[in-house]
Amino acid sequence: MQPYLLKVPLQRKEPEIHFDACQVDYVCTLSDSEFRFFQHNLMEEQDFLRDYNLHHATPPTEGVRNAVMVLSTGTDDGILVCTEGYDYARYSAYVPNARQILQLKQYPALQDYVSGMTELAERCVQKALTVGQPEEYRISLADLRSYAGNDTFNTDLFLALLNDRPELNSVELNDDWILLGICPEYLSRRDRELHILNDEEFKIACAKHLLWQYDAGGAQANFSNCEFHGTDFSAMELNSAVFDGTVFWNCRFQDASLCFASFRNCTFIGCDCRDMTAEEANFCGTVFDRCEMGNAVMTHSDLTDVVFQDCEMAQASIRNSLIKGMVMTDNACTTLDMIGTTVDTEAWSSQATENMAEEELQ
Asked: Around Cβ 284, how many Cβ atoms within 10 Å?
């Protein structure tokens, strides 16, 4: 997150935050000099407050204070004033970014649009930091429009949002793609967070996990925030193992059993995942980039915000999975089984709970 300056009146050692409900029923904009004078002379009577009391103040509501928002032509901040019929600032509060707050309150559709665009920009930046090869990431405009809505997506605004991000040193529009250049310091920061296991550590963890699965001692495998290069997981039984935040480069998962495993915010790059079974697994926020996924089974899994990019997915199945926010780019997936998939988190969670209860009864 980019640091920014915020001017607020801080309280010292208060045990809790107290606030009053205020209804802004009038906005008054002063010149910069008038605003600064008012800011330093709140107890003096003001003509604009007298005018507010006479012509603009609405009848009071129980439990709610009526207020006027005082803005300046020279700043986006404002001063909220509750006059209670007086011509001076009987009650007042300094409000940072008051102009933007009023605009978004006045136009809820604008607030929804801004939230959607910023969320999409944040998601793209985070994926770029995870998947950069090694320092560039591409985004399909078609996918962005599909996710945000063709009628509302604004390419110029989206490019401007990305250009404001400190993690990126270049943003380039190339035909139907946006190419993001990642600043080296952010790539190195990502690399330093990952742990590379040696062969002995990996084998011991897998052996202990196998014992744990069969209630014969051992320990659940936790490979979170690791990095694997060319590791062969083929035919391994790693059900319920934890891989959160892990990056897999050119690894093999053929016929691997990964049911109930956790792969949150992982990255699979150039991996062979054909015939792997990962039922009821958690892949939330994970990226599959240029992976072979033919006949892979990922049914009943959480695929929230998952990205499939340039993957071969013939005869793969994500049946009955949660696919809210899932993005698919240039995949071969005409035979992908998506029956029963949903973007309704609550309904999917409820169904998953019912399935677990039925299994326990059996």
From this structure: 20
> For 233-269, how does the pLDDT look when each residue is reduced to its tens digit (9 = 90+)?
999 999 999 999 998 999 999 999 999 999 998 989 9
What confidence score (pLDDT) does residue 354 get? 65
| Preceding amide of 166 cis, omega within 30 | no
CA 38/CA 89 separation, integer angstroms: 9
Three-state SS annotation for 60-102: CECCEEEEEEEEECCEEEEEEEECCCCCCCCEEEEECCHHHHH
Q: Could you read off the pLDDT of 334-357 as tens digits, one per residue?
A: 899 999 999 999 889 887 666 654
Are residues 8 and 94 in contact, defined by beta-carbon separation less than 8 angstroms? yes
End-to-end C-alpha distance for the chain, whole angstroms: 49
Instruction: Mention every residue, 6+ apart, whose C-beta is less than 8 A from residue 173.
Output: 155, 159, 179
The token pair at 289 is 């980039």
- Give the Cα separation of 236 and 248 in Å (integer): 16
